[in-house]
Design a protein that fits this description.
This protein is mainly beta and 200 residues long.
Length: 200
């Protein structure tokens, strides 16, 4: 889930940035320091939106930079258990599909793809269901539920997000649309034939 959060931090302003307006210099330093990082409490830091407050600058002997305490607004992404997400398939491998969730990727294992048996077509880089012959490949849009989250602060790309598409209203969006179109429209009933009386 994306969230806008008010956060605070101490940031170092390099000497070459000291001639700029202070909020611009702080925003630049915050972006350089924080964007792309992952924290287990707030999730992935997507963007620094704006700087709200900047405190007095502090200097440290032997360091040409100036340190400022600041409050700022940031856009973060925290994957939450049981959350329904939509994303594009980034990679298809023998054991499942990787789905882009914005700043992080999730994995749908083949056992969580569908109730049908699934085989891997390496030549075309796709997974195919045995009974219905449906396929899923790179670029397809899918809807899935988050079932496991393990964020890695040191190596954000090694964070693990487990997904499932085996529940109702989940799966490849094209499959869901096809299923919706196949269902008879509710409220439309066949006209009852008039009953014949005996002897007619």
């Amino acid at each position: 889930m994306y969230k806008k959060m008010r956060l605070s931090d101490t940031v170092r302003i390099a000497p070459e940035l000291l001639g700029q307006p202070i909020k611009d210099a702080v925003r630049f330093a915050l972006r350089d320091k924080l964007e792309g990082l992952v924290d287990k409490k707030i999730g992935a830091m997507v963007a620094i939106i704006n700087v709200q407050e900047v405190g007095e600058g502090h200097i440290i002997p032997g360091d040409a930079g100036v340190y400022y305490d600041t409050n700022f607004d940031a856009l973060t992404f925290m994957p939450e258990l049981q959350e329904i997400i939509e994303g594009s398939v980034l990679e298809v491998v023998e054991f499942g599909i990787f789905v882009g969730l914005g700043p992080l990727d999730g994995l749908v294992h083949v056992s969580q793809l569908t109730d049908e048996f699934v085989s891997y077509d390496e030549r075309n880089s796709r997974l195919i269901t045995k009974e219905s012959g449906k396929s899923i490949t790179v670029g397809d849009r899918v809807r899935a539920r988050i079932v496991a989250v393990s964020l890695n602060e040191r190596e954000p790309r090694d964070s693990k997000i487990g997904l499932t598409m085996r529940q109702h209203a989940l799966g490849k969006l094209d499959w869901l649309e096809e299923a919706r179109m196949e269902k008879p429209k509710e409220g439309v009933e066949e006209k009852a034939k008039p009953k014949r009386k005996k002897g007619e």
